């Protein structure tokens, strides 16, 4: 497990170093090879994180509670529902907000409609928070 943890820490460092190498060299032939290396290292990093989570999270979740074995997974589910919905809401607000500003610059009379769409995008985070509160209420 220590080898997987070390590799998971070393790969982002190599990716950052390759990015600096591309930035400093400005060589087209090497840039293509380094970009392939960056893609490969990011994909390996994702696989290592998935393996790490697959083997480590069930052990942590079962070690946390001896009386109730589902509480660890309940906390994990609540955290994931809040986190993923917050990320999705951030992305939605970014896309809808930038489009709304572009539309308002063309027609200033549609400010109210664009605010409604941005509010709907923010509602995604509220739904995730409500789901996590419901999950925590069941634990």
UniProtKB/TrEMBL annotation:
<dbReference type="InterPro" id="IPR002379">
    <property type="entry name" value="ATPase_proteolipid_c-like_dom"/>
</dbReference>
<keyword id="KW-1133">Transmembrane helix</keyword>
<dbReference type="InterPro" id="IPR035921">
    <property type="entry name" value="F/V-ATP_Csub_sf"/>
</dbReference>
<feature type="transmembrane region" description="Helical">
    <location>
        <begin position="6"/>
        <end position="24"/>
    </location>
</feature>
<dbReference type="GO" id="GO:0046961">
    <property type="term" value="F:proton-transporting ATPase activity, rotational mechanism"/>
</dbReference>
<keyword id="KW-0812">Transmembrane</keyword>
<feature type="transmembrane region" description="Helical">
    <location>
        <begin position="115"/>
        <end position="136"/>
    </location>
</feature>
<dbReference type="Pfam" id="PF00137">
    <property type="entry name" value="ATP-synt_C"/>
</dbReference>
<keyword id="KW-0472">Membrane</keyword>
<comment type="similarity">
    <text>Belongs to the V-ATPase proteolipid subunit family.</text>
</comment>
<protein>
    <submittedName>
        <fullName>ATPase</fullName>
    </submittedName>
</protein>
<dbReference type="GO" id="GO:0033179">
    <property type="term" value="C:proton-transporting V-type ATPase, V0 domain"/>
</dbReference>
<feature type="transmembrane region" description="Helical">
    <location>
        <begin position="44"/>
        <end position="63"/>
    </location>
</feature>
<feature type="domain" description="V-ATPase proteolipid subunit C-like">
    <location>
        <begin position="76"/>
        <end position="135"/>
    </location>
</feature>
<keyword id="KW-0406">Ion transport</keyword>
<feature type="transmembrane region" description="Helical">
    <location>
        <begin position="75"/>
        <end position="103"/>
    </location>
</feature>
<keyword id="KW-0813">Transport</keyword>
<dbReference type="InterPro" id="IPR000245">
    <property type="entry name" value="ATPase_proteolipid_csu"/>
</dbReference>
């Amino acid at each position: 497990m220590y080898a997987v943890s070390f590799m998971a820490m070393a790969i982002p460092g190599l990716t950052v170093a390759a990015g600096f190498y591309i930035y400093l060299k400005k060589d087209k032939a090497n840039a293509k090879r380094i970009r392939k290396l960056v893609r490969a290292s990011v994909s390996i990093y994702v696989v290592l994180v998935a393996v790490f989570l697959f083997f480590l999270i069930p052990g942590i979740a079962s070690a946390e509670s001896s009386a109730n074995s589902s509480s660890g997974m309940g906390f994990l589910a609540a955290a994931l529902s809040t986190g993923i919905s917050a990320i999705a809401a951030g992305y939605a607000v970014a896309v809808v907000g930038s489009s709304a500003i572009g539309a308002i610059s063309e027609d200033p009379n549609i400010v109210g409609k664009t605010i409604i769409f941005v509010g709907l995008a923010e509602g995604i985070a509220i739904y995730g928070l409500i789901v996590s509160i419901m999950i925590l209420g069941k634990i």
